Amino acid sequence: MNFKLGGPQKYLVFSEEVLRHFERQRQRGMFSKEAGGQLFASYSGDSIVIAIATGPYPSDRRSRYRFTPDPVRAQQDIDTHFRQRRHFIGNWHTHPEEVPSPSPTDVKNTRRRFVESDHALEAFVLVIVGLAPFPRGLYVSLLDAIRLNVLAHCSEESISNTCPLYQPAVQARSLAGMAGTGSSKKAARRRKPPMQSSF
Ligand SMILES: [Zn+2]
Asked: What pLDDT digit, counting tens, does each position of 113-144 carry?
């Protein structure tokens, strides 16, 4: 499933495995708790492919409306996947609503992590998994210190150039820090855990 980025990497692509993982974690039950974790991606041609979605883990703190990942486990995953050339690019979590949208806390805390963590990315990906079938039930955005851009889903038919692009200002530059240059690799190795904060 593709979402339009509009920079040198044109698409943010979710692998089938990641989509299946999201589907399994949907908050279907009355009392089911939020789930979440990290997103790891690699480059493939003109796309950034989200190949792995980690979590939730038993050591995460979870309730119906809150998810706080275990920061030690989060850093272990960043190190492990980095060795396999997969880069941390953001976080995902579930909401018990049909068509999900971020809470003010989601935006505030993601922004805080973006500003205060040590990383080489120009934006973080924020994914929220809702109850409706995808893509309706999948919220995908890019956040930096100031901007928040919701990414548009591109169906296979519209992928040529009719796919709409919401607020294109950020996408052209976004995620450029992932490009695998020496400096970004160093930065990624140095990266501290995404700070512990809730979604
Ligand atoms: Zn949330």
From this structure: 899 888 888 899 999 999 999 999 999 999 99
Within 13 Å, how many C-alpha atoms sit on residue 167's CB side? 10
Q: How many CA atoms lie within 13 A of 137 on its CB side?
A: 19
* Ligand 1 midpoint to CA 182 (Å): 34
What tokens does 197 get?
Answer: 């904060």
Give CA–CA dist 173/194, Å, rounded: 21
Model pTM score: 0.82
Domains in the chain: ranges and CATH: 2-190 (3.40.140.10)
Distance 199 CA to ligand 1 centre (A): 5
Reading the block at residue 162, the tokens are 């009719």
Q: Is the peptide bond before 8 cis (omega within 30 degrees of 0)?
A: no
* Residue 180 Cα to ligand 1 middle (Å): 30
Cα(66) to centroid(ligand 1), Å: 7
Instruction: Mean pLDDT check: name the lowest of 27-31, 41-45, 152-156, 172-176.
Output: 172-176
SS3 at position 25: helix
> In whole angstroms, what is the distance from residue 59 CA to residue 73 CA?
8
**CA 13 to centroid of ligand 1, rounded, Å:** 21
Tell me whether the omega of the peptide bond preceding residue 168 falls within 30 degrees of 0, making it cis: no
φ, ψ dihedrals at 2, nearest 5°: -110, 145
